[in-house]
Amino acid sequence: MIIGYIVKAGVIATAALSGSVARNIWQTYQLLRQEPQSKQLLPKSIIKVDDALTRLKSMKRKELVQLYMSSDAPDRLSSISGPWNGTLLDNNGWIMTSVSEIITYYFFGIGDRHWNGKSFADDHTGWNQFQTKGGKIELEHKVDVSIGPSGLGKNSAIVRYSSYQSFFSPWRTMVDELRVLKLDYVDGEILICMGFMGWSGGVLNASPFCLHRKKDTNMSEEQK
Question: Which residues are CB-contacts of 96 (< 8 A; sequence separation ≥ 6)?
Answer without folding.
Answer: 20, 21, 24, 61, 207
